[in-house]
Amino acid sequence: MMEQTARHIADSKSILIVSHANPDGDAVSSLIALGLGLEKLNKNVVLYNESLIPAVYRFLPSVDRISQDLHTEMHFDTVIVLDCGDPERIGSAVQTVLADRVVINIDHHVTNTGFGDIQFVDPEACATAELIHRLLMHLSVPIDTAIATAIYTGILTDTGSFRFSNTNLATFAICTEMVKKGVTPYNVAQCVYGTYSLERIKLLNLALDSIEISSNGKLSIMTVTREMLNMTGTQLDDADGLIHYARRIEDVKVAALIQELRNGNGPSGNQNRFHVSLRSDGTVDVATIAAAYGGGGHSSAAGFSIDATLSEVKSEIVVLAEKL
Ligand code: 5GP
Ligand code: MN
User: Fold this and answer.
1) Are residues 203 and 150 in the same domain?
2) Angle 271-94-301 from CA coordinates, rounded to 5°
Protein backbone atom coordinates (compact mmCIF):
# COMPACT_ATOMS: atom_id res chain seq x y z
CA MET A 1 0.00 0.00 0.00
CA MET A 2 0.96 3.65 -0.12
CA GLU A 3 2.71 3.87 3.29
CA GLN A 4 4.90 0.87 2.53
CA THR A 5 5.66 2.28 -0.93
CA ALA A 6 6.66 5.63 0.58
CA ARG A 7 8.84 3.98 3.25
CA HIS A 8 10.66 1.88 0.73
CA ILE A 9 11.23 4.83 -1.59
CA ALA A 10 12.66 6.84 1.32
CA ASP A 11 15.20 4.03 1.87
CA SER A 12 16.18 3.69 -1.82
CA LYS A 13 19.01 5.58 -3.50
CA SER A 14 18.74 4.61 -7.18
CA ILE A 15 15.34 4.04 -8.69
CA LEU A 16 14.34 2.87 -12.16
CA ILE A 17 10.83 4.00 -13.14
CA VAL A 18 9.04 2.38 -16.09
CA SER A 19 5.58 2.45 -17.67
CA HIS A 20 3.87 0.42 -20.37
CA ALA A 21 5.01 0.16 -23.99
CA ASN A 22 2.97 2.19 -26.51
CA PRO A 23 2.29 4.64 -23.69
CA ASP A 24 -0.87 6.71 -23.37
CA GLY A 25 -1.05 10.13 -21.68
CA ASP A 26 -1.25 8.63 -18.19
CA ALA A 27 1.75 6.33 -18.74
CA VAL A 28 3.95 9.20 -19.99
CA SER A 29 2.72 11.74 -17.42
CA SER A 30 2.98 9.44 -14.40
CA LEU A 31 6.55 8.57 -15.37
CA ILE A 32 7.53 12.24 -15.56
CA ALA A 33 5.63 13.35 -12.44
CA LEU A 34 7.10 10.61 -10.25
CA GLY A 35 10.60 11.03 -11.73
CA LEU A 36 10.68 14.79 -11.14
CA GLY A 37 9.13 14.34 -7.69
CA LEU A 38 11.68 11.76 -6.53
CA GLU A 39 14.53 13.93 -7.80
CA LYS A 40 13.35 16.57 -5.34
CA LEU A 41 14.08 13.94 -2.65
CA ASN A 42 17.62 13.64 -4.12
CA LYS A 43 17.07 10.15 -5.52
CA ASN A 44 18.98 9.00 -8.60
CA VAL A 45 16.21 8.21 -11.06
CA VAL A 46 16.16 6.78 -14.57
CA LEU A 47 12.93 6.92 -16.57
CA TYR A 48 12.39 4.13 -19.09
CA ASN A 49 9.78 3.37 -21.72
CA GLU A 50 10.25 0.83 -24.49
CA SER A 51 8.46 2.99 -27.09
CA LEU A 52 9.08 6.43 -28.53
CA ILE A 53 6.86 9.00 -26.86
CA PRO A 54 3.84 9.93 -29.06
CA ALA A 55 4.15 13.40 -30.63
CA VAL A 56 1.18 14.85 -28.72
CA TYR A 57 2.90 14.21 -25.37
CA ARG A 58 6.28 15.65 -26.34
CA PHE A 59 5.28 19.05 -24.92
CA LEU A 60 5.48 17.63 -21.39
CA PRO A 61 8.27 19.05 -19.23
CA SER A 62 11.41 16.88 -19.09
CA VAL A 63 9.95 14.43 -21.62
CA ASP A 64 13.47 14.03 -23.02
CA ARG A 65 14.46 12.42 -19.74
CA ILE A 66 12.50 9.31 -20.77
CA SER A 67 14.99 6.87 -22.21
CA GLN A 68 14.44 3.94 -24.56
CA ASP A 69 17.74 2.57 -23.24
CA LEU A 70 17.68 0.58 -19.98
CA HIS A 71 21.08 1.72 -18.63
CA THR A 72 21.95 -1.89 -17.73
CA GLU A 73 25.37 -0.71 -16.49
CA MET A 74 23.66 1.13 -13.62
CA HIS A 75 22.67 -0.39 -10.29
CA PHE A 76 19.12 0.19 -9.05
CA ASP A 77 17.79 -0.71 -5.57
CA THR A 78 14.23 -0.42 -6.75
CA VAL A 79 12.10 -0.45 -9.89
CA ILE A 80 8.71 1.25 -9.90
CA VAL A 81 6.30 -0.06 -12.56
CA LEU A 82 3.54 2.41 -13.48
CA ASP A 83 0.13 1.93 -15.11
CA CYS A 84 0.75 -1.77 -15.93
CA GLY A 85 -1.97 -4.32 -15.10
CA ASP A 86 0.60 -7.05 -15.62
CA PRO A 87 4.40 -6.87 -15.97
CA GLU A 88 4.37 -8.00 -19.63
CA ARG A 89 2.90 -4.57 -20.48
CA ILE A 90 6.44 -3.18 -19.96
CA GLY A 91 7.46 -4.81 -23.25
CA SER A 92 10.26 -7.06 -24.38
CA ALA A 93 12.70 -5.94 -21.64
CA VAL A 94 10.41 -7.10 -18.81
CA GLN A 95 12.82 -9.72 -17.42
CA THR A 96 15.76 -7.28 -17.32
CA VAL A 97 13.61 -4.55 -15.78
CA LEU A 98 12.37 -6.72 -12.91
CA ALA A 99 15.61 -8.62 -12.17
CA ASP A 100 17.48 -8.34 -8.83
CA ARG A 101 15.71 -5.37 -7.32
CA VAL A 102 12.64 -4.56 -5.25
CA VAL A 103 9.62 -4.18 -7.55
CA ILE A 104 6.92 -1.62 -6.68
CA ASN A 105 3.68 -1.87 -8.64
CA ILE A 106 1.67 1.39 -8.85
CA ASP A 107 -1.51 1.07 -10.90
CA HIS A 108 -5.27 1.64 -11.11
CA HIS A 109 -6.42 -1.24 -13.35
CA VAL A 110 -9.08 -3.51 -11.87
CA THR A 111 -7.36 -6.47 -13.56
CA ASN A 112 -3.97 -5.77 -11.91
CA THR A 113 -2.36 -9.13 -11.14
CA GLY A 114 -0.77 -7.93 -7.88
CA PHE A 115 2.75 -8.56 -9.19
CA GLY A 116 5.85 -7.17 -7.49
CA ASP A 117 7.12 -6.98 -3.91
CA ILE A 118 5.07 -3.92 -2.93
CA GLN A 119 1.72 -2.95 -4.46
CA PHE A 120 0.04 0.43 -4.47
CA VAL A 121 -2.99 -0.44 -6.59
CA ASP A 122 -6.32 1.37 -6.38
CA PRO A 123 -8.94 0.73 -9.09
CA GLU A 124 -10.96 3.66 -7.68
CA ALA A 125 -8.26 6.10 -8.85
CA CYS A 126 -9.13 7.78 -12.14
CA ALA A 127 -5.52 7.59 -13.35
CA THR A 128 -2.14 6.36 -12.19
CA ALA A 129 -1.28 10.07 -12.09
CA GLU A 130 -3.79 10.42 -9.23
CA LEU A 131 -1.83 7.79 -7.25
CA ILE A 132 1.42 9.63 -8.01
CA HIS A 133 -0.15 12.80 -6.64
CA ARG A 134 -1.20 10.97 -3.43
CA LEU A 135 2.28 9.48 -3.05
CA LEU A 136 4.12 12.77 -3.62
CA MET A 137 1.85 14.50 -1.09
CA HIS A 138 2.57 11.73 1.43
CA LEU A 139 6.32 12.16 0.80
CA SER A 140 5.92 15.95 1.28
CA VAL A 141 7.34 16.64 -2.18
CA PRO A 142 6.59 20.21 -3.29
CA ILE A 143 4.51 20.14 -6.49
CA ASP A 144 5.97 22.63 -8.99
CA THR A 145 4.40 23.65 -12.31
CA ALA A 146 6.26 20.91 -14.22
CA ILE A 147 5.03 18.11 -11.95
CA ALA A 148 1.55 19.67 -11.86
CA THR A 149 1.43 19.77 -15.68
CA ALA A 150 2.27 16.07 -15.88
CA ILE A 151 -0.29 15.07 -13.21
CA TYR A 152 -2.99 17.21 -14.85
CA THR A 153 -2.27 15.72 -18.28
CA GLY A 154 -2.39 12.14 -16.98
CA ILE A 155 -5.78 12.76 -15.39
CA LEU A 156 -7.14 14.73 -18.36
CA THR A 157 -6.29 11.98 -20.84
CA ASP A 158 -7.27 8.96 -18.70
CA THR A 159 -10.69 10.46 -17.94
CA GLY A 160 -11.24 11.29 -21.63
CA SER A 161 -11.35 14.99 -20.71
CA PHE A 162 -13.57 14.38 -17.67
CA ARG A 163 -16.14 12.40 -19.67
CA PHE A 164 -15.51 8.78 -18.60
CA SER A 165 -17.17 7.05 -15.65
CA ASN A 166 -13.91 7.23 -13.63
CA THR A 167 -14.34 11.02 -13.37
CA ASN A 168 -15.19 11.92 -9.76
CA LEU A 169 -14.71 14.47 -7.01
CA ALA A 170 -11.03 13.59 -6.49
CA THR A 171 -10.45 14.13 -10.23
CA PHE A 172 -11.60 17.74 -10.05
CA ALA A 173 -10.06 18.36 -6.61
CA ILE A 174 -6.60 17.35 -7.84
CA CYS A 175 -6.98 19.22 -11.11
CA THR A 176 -8.02 22.37 -9.21
CA GLU A 177 -4.85 22.02 -7.11
CA MET A 178 -2.75 21.55 -10.26
CA VAL A 179 -4.21 24.71 -11.82
CA LYS A 180 -3.33 26.55 -8.60
CA LYS A 181 0.24 25.29 -9.10
CA GLY A 182 0.40 27.00 -12.48
CA VAL A 183 -1.15 24.63 -15.05
CA THR A 184 -3.05 26.38 -17.85
CA PRO A 185 -5.80 23.97 -18.97
CA TYR A 186 -6.13 25.65 -22.36
CA ASN A 187 -2.43 25.16 -23.14
CA VAL A 188 -2.53 21.48 -22.20
CA ALA A 189 -5.74 20.93 -24.21
CA GLN A 190 -4.17 22.65 -27.24
CA CYS A 191 -1.08 20.43 -27.05
CA VAL A 192 -2.99 17.17 -26.51
CA TYR A 193 -6.03 17.72 -28.74
CA GLY A 194 -5.33 20.76 -30.91
CA THR A 195 -2.17 19.77 -32.73
CA TYR A 196 -3.24 16.83 -34.89
CA SER A 197 -1.19 16.42 -38.06
CA LEU A 198 -3.07 16.50 -41.36
CA GLU A 199 -1.99 12.87 -41.83
CA ARG A 200 -3.77 11.96 -38.60
CA ILE A 201 -6.98 13.61 -39.81
CA LYS A 202 -6.71 11.59 -43.05
CA LEU A 203 -6.36 8.43 -40.95
CA LEU A 204 -9.47 9.46 -39.02
CA ASN A 205 -11.29 9.63 -42.33
CA LEU A 206 -10.33 6.03 -43.24
CA ALA A 207 -11.06 4.80 -39.71
CA LEU A 208 -14.54 6.36 -39.69
CA ASP A 209 -15.22 4.77 -43.05
CA SER A 210 -14.24 1.34 -41.65
CA ILE A 211 -16.93 1.36 -38.93
CA GLU A 212 -19.26 -1.65 -38.99
CA ILE A 213 -22.28 -2.10 -36.72
CA SER A 214 -23.64 -5.46 -35.49
CA SER A 215 -27.14 -6.41 -36.64
CA ASN A 216 -28.62 -5.54 -33.22
CA GLY A 217 -26.90 -2.14 -33.30
CA LYS A 218 -25.19 -2.62 -29.93
CA LEU A 219 -21.63 -3.24 -31.08
CA SER A 220 -19.43 -1.18 -33.38
CA ILE A 221 -16.13 -2.24 -34.91
CA MET A 222 -13.51 0.14 -36.28
CA THR A 223 -10.41 -1.17 -38.05
CA VAL A 224 -6.99 0.42 -38.56
CA THR A 225 -4.71 -1.62 -40.82
CA ARG A 226 -1.02 -1.20 -41.65
CA GLU A 227 -2.12 -0.29 -45.17
CA MET A 228 -4.19 2.61 -43.81
CA LEU A 229 -1.16 3.86 -41.86
CA ASN A 230 1.00 3.57 -44.97
CA MET A 231 -1.56 5.33 -47.17
CA THR A 232 -1.79 8.30 -44.79
CA GLY A 233 1.83 8.37 -43.58
CA THR A 234 0.82 7.82 -39.94
CA GLN A 235 2.06 5.69 -37.05
CA LEU A 236 0.13 3.36 -34.74
CA ASP A 237 -0.07 5.99 -32.00
CA ASP A 238 -1.95 8.29 -34.39
CA ALA A 239 -4.91 5.92 -33.89
CA ASP A 240 -5.04 6.89 -30.20
CA GLY A 241 -8.53 8.12 -29.30
CA LEU A 242 -10.19 7.16 -32.60
CA ILE A 243 -12.26 4.52 -30.83
CA HIS A 244 -14.35 7.23 -29.17
CA TYR A 245 -16.06 7.92 -32.48
CA ALA A 246 -17.17 4.28 -32.63
CA ARG A 247 -18.31 4.42 -28.98
CA ARG A 248 -20.41 7.54 -29.20
CA ILE A 249 -22.78 6.15 -31.82
CA GLU A 250 -26.37 6.05 -30.61
CA ASP A 251 -27.41 2.66 -29.06
CA VAL A 252 -23.86 1.31 -29.18
CA LYS A 253 -22.92 -0.36 -25.88
CA VAL A 254 -19.50 -1.69 -26.83
CA ALA A 255 -17.03 -0.38 -29.39
CA ALA A 256 -14.02 -2.34 -30.60
CA LEU A 257 -11.00 -0.90 -32.40
CA ILE A 258 -8.93 -3.53 -34.18
CA GLN A 259 -5.40 -2.31 -34.88
CA GLU A 260 -3.03 -4.34 -37.03
CA LEU A 261 0.27 -4.53 -35.13
CA ARG A 262 2.03 -6.86 -37.55
CA ASN A 263 1.18 -7.92 -41.06
CA GLY A 264 2.06 -11.58 -41.50
CA ASN A 265 2.00 -11.50 -45.29
CA GLY A 266 5.63 -10.41 -45.51
CA PRO A 267 8.67 -12.65 -46.02
CA SER A 268 9.00 -13.28 -42.25
CA GLY A 269 6.10 -15.74 -42.38
CA ASN A 270 4.94 -14.54 -38.96
CA GLN A 271 1.26 -14.62 -38.13
CA ASN A 272 -0.77 -11.43 -38.20
CA ARG A 273 -1.03 -9.75 -34.82
CA PHE A 274 -3.76 -7.33 -33.75
CA HIS A 275 -4.44 -5.16 -30.74
CA VAL A 276 -8.11 -4.91 -29.85
CA SER A 277 -9.30 -1.94 -27.77
CA LEU A 278 -12.71 -2.21 -26.14
CA ARG A 279 -14.83 0.62 -24.76
CA SER A 280 -18.27 0.31 -23.17
CA ASP A 281 -21.03 2.72 -22.26
CA GLY A 282 -20.63 1.65 -18.62
CA THR A 283 -23.30 -1.08 -18.65
CA VAL A 284 -20.93 -3.79 -19.91
CA ASP A 285 -17.72 -4.92 -18.18
CA VAL A 286 -15.16 -5.07 -20.99
CA ALA A 287 -12.24 -5.81 -18.60
CA THR A 288 -13.64 -9.33 -18.15
CA ILE A 289 -13.97 -9.78 -21.92
CA ALA A 290 -10.38 -8.58 -22.48
CA ALA A 291 -9.08 -10.79 -19.64
CA ALA A 292 -10.62 -13.83 -21.36
CA TYR A 293 -8.24 -13.10 -24.26
CA GLY A 294 -5.22 -12.59 -21.99
CA GLY A 295 -5.57 -8.81 -21.79
CA GLY A 296 -7.09 -6.54 -19.17
CA GLY A 297 -7.97 -2.96 -18.26
CA HIS A 298 -10.89 -1.17 -16.64
CA SER A 299 -14.57 -2.12 -16.67
CA SER A 300 -15.34 0.42 -19.39
CA ALA A 301 -11.94 0.55 -21.20
CA ALA A 302 -9.85 -2.53 -21.82
CA GLY A 303 -7.77 -4.27 -24.45
CA PHE A 304 -5.92 -7.38 -25.55
CA SER A 305 -3.60 -8.55 -28.30
CA ILE A 306 -4.21 -11.58 -30.48
CA ASP A 307 -2.46 -13.56 -33.24
CA ALA A 308 -5.04 -14.29 -35.93
CA THR A 309 -6.28 -13.09 -39.30
CA LEU A 310 -8.44 -9.97 -39.46
CA SER A 311 -11.56 -11.95 -40.35
CA GLU A 312 -10.95 -14.32 -37.42
CA VAL A 313 -10.62 -11.37 -35.02
CA LYS A 314 -13.82 -9.82 -36.38
CA SER A 315 -15.82 -13.01 -36.01
CA GLU A 316 -14.59 -13.41 -32.40
CA ILE A 317 -15.83 -9.89 -31.65
CA VAL A 318 -19.12 -10.02 -33.55
CA VAL A 319 -20.39 -12.91 -31.40
CA LEU A 320 -20.04 -10.66 -28.37
CA ALA A 321 -22.91 -8.55 -29.73
CA GLU A 322 -25.45 -11.34 -29.15
CA LYS A 323 -24.89 -11.08 -25.39
CA LEU A 324 -25.29 -7.30 -25.18
P1 5GP B 1 -6.28 0.48 -25.01
O2 5GP B 1 -7.38 -0.31 -25.59
O3 5GP B 1 -6.49 1.93 -25.17
O4 5GP B 1 -4.93 0.03 -25.43
O5 5GP B 1 -6.32 0.18 -23.46
C6 5GP B 1 -7.46 0.35 -22.68
C7 5GP B 1 -7.12 -0.02 -21.27
O8 5GP B 1 -6.85 -1.43 -21.19
C9 5GP B 1 -5.86 0.65 -20.76
O10 5GP B 1 -6.06 0.99 -19.43
C11 5GP B 1 -4.79 -0.39 -20.92
O12 5GP B 1 -3.79 -0.25 -19.96
C13 5GP B 1 -5.54 -1.70 -20.79
N14 5GP B 1 -4.99 -2.71 -21.68
C15 5GP B 1 -4.92 -2.64 -23.04
N16 5GP B 1 -4.35 -3.74 -23.55
C17 5GP B 1 -4.02 -4.53 -22.51
C18 5GP B 1 -3.39 -5.81 -22.39
O19 5GP B 1 -3.00 -6.44 -23.37
N20 5GP B 1 -3.24 -6.29 -21.13
C21 5GP B 1 -3.65 -5.60 -20.02
N22 5GP B 1 -3.46 -6.14 -18.81
N23 5GP B 1 -4.25 -4.40 -20.09
C24 5GP B 1 -4.44 -3.87 -21.31
MN1 MN C 1 -3.92 4.75 -16.70
Assistant:
1) no
2) 70
